[in-house]
Amino acid sequence: MSLSRRSLLAASLAAIPALATGALAQTEGQWRAVTGDNGQPIPNTRLPGELASEIGTLRGVTWLGPREASVTLYEFFDYNCPWCRAAARDLDDLVKANPDLRIGLINNPILSVQSAQAAKVAMAVQRTGGSAATAKLYTALLGPGTSGRIDGLRALDAAARLGLDRAAIEQGADSDEVREALKSQMRLAANLGLHATPSYVVGTSALLGYPGPKSLARVLASVAECDEIACGS
């Protein structure tokens, strides 16, 4: 079944509003004093521990970095979010500068049906090739030199260029397993109040929005030092 056909569009449309309206709204304040690279405060909040602990059990997470890392950072992103693209371009430097960091990339396609289509393709790639293949697709769609709107067909084209079986990925993207896994990722993001893309979770703290590479590096250094996103605040 083609990703451009009515059935998949309808399924994507049905998933987004149902999950988005279930969000547990968080205030746009600050749990800790965190400033972005632009000098502006970054909204952040304390998360319920029982909900935050569910993130690591989600199916379809793309993992980067060592399994036994001392710090795990989750990014909830949308393939058509410009700030997610900016974050993706800084990802290699972040990984190289933090060898004891594990990153979990989680789909939260709240901006458009096209974003949901691309997320389904990525999750089908995850089923076939694991995190290594999905990370390559992520870079192909959001990394340096990329631009423009991303939908299911563009994601399929990128997967095919990476040497993956296009027909198998397309079939997997339209499977019940992928659909339910994506719903679970979006549902948890909504329940955590992660209504901005990208949003980051480390421990039981969430940052709403991309703070920039320098600020994010400071957050990670603080977590390593005092287990908080900002020490002494």
Draw up the topology in text.
Blueprint (H helix, E strand, L loop, with lengths): L5 H15 L23 E3 L2 H4 L9 E3 L6 E7 L4 H8 L1 H7 L3 E7 L5 H30 L9 H10 L4 H8 L2 H16 L7 E4 L2 E4 L4 H14 L7
Parallel strand pairs: 3-4
Antiparallel strand pairs: 1-6, 2-4, 3-5, 5-6
Condensed summary:
By secondary structure, the chain is an alpha+beta fold. It has helices at residues 6-20, 49-52, 82-89, 91-97, 113-142, 152-161, 166-173, 176-191, 213-226; strands spanning 44-46, 62-64, 71-77, 101-107, 199-202, 205-208.
Provide structural commentary.
With 233 residues, this protein is an alpha+beta fold. It is built from 9 helices and 6 strands; from the N terminus they run H-E-H-E-E-H-H-E-H-H-H-H-E-E-H. The protein has helices spanning 6-20, 49-52, 82-89, 91-97, 113-142, 152-161, 166-173, 176-191, 213-226; strands at 44-46, 62-64, 71-77, 101-107, 199-202, 205-208. The protein has a 6-stranded mixed β-sheet. Strand 5 and strand 6 (205-208) form a beta hairpin. The chain is globular. Mean pLDDT is 88; it is low at 1-27.
